[in-house]
């Protein structure tokens, strides 16, 4: 599942990610445009048992979440 959360301030990127997790997504790709949202999504993912890799792309962060 892909989530484009660019331009959204917290907690909206976290809420969208949580909704995807709650729908049973095993892999989620989240794009955010600020470090606060990146850190908050990473914390959520870890708390729900997902591993996260972050790939900076210019001013964006692409987070790849995978269920452990």
Write up this protein.
It is a single chain. This protein has one domain: TusA-like domain (Translation Initiation Factor IF3), CATH 3.30.110. It is α+β, with helices and mostly antiparallel strands. Helix content is 35%, strand content 37%. It has a four-stranded mixed beta sheet with strand order 1-2-4-3, covered by helices on one side.
Indicate the topology:
Blueprint: E1 2-4, H1 12-22, E2 27-32, H2 35-47, E3 50-57, E4 60-67
Parallel strand pairs: 1-2
Antiparallel strand pairs: 2-4, 3-4
Helix pairs in contact: 1-2
Jot down its keywords.
single chain, 68 residues, alpha+beta, Translation Initiation Factor IF3, four-stranded mixed beta sheet, 2 helices
Largest sheet, strands/sense/barrel: 4 strands, mixed
Look up the CATH topology. Translation Initiation Factor IF3
Within CATH, the superfamily carries the name TusA-like domain
Task: Kindly state the percentage of residues in helix.
Answer: 25-40%
Strand content: 35-45%
How many β-strands, per DSSP?
4
The poorly predicted ranges are: none
Please give the domain count. 1
CATH architectural type:
2-Layer Sandwich
CATH top-level class = Alpha Beta
Straight-line distance between termini = 16 Å
Mean pLDDT: 97
Structural class: alpha+beta
Summarize the structure.
With 68 residues, the protein is of the alpha+beta class. The chain has 2 helices and 4 strands; from the N terminus they run βαβαββ.
């Amino acid at each position: 599942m892909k989530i484009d959360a660019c331009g959204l301030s917290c907690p909206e990127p976290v809420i969208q990610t949580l909704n995807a997790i709650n729908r049973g997504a095993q892999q989620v790709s989240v794009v955010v445009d600020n470090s606060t949202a990146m850190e908050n999504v990473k914390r959520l993912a870890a708390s729900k048992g997902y591993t996260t890799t972050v790939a900076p792309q210019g001013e964006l962060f692409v987070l790849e979440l995978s269920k452990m």
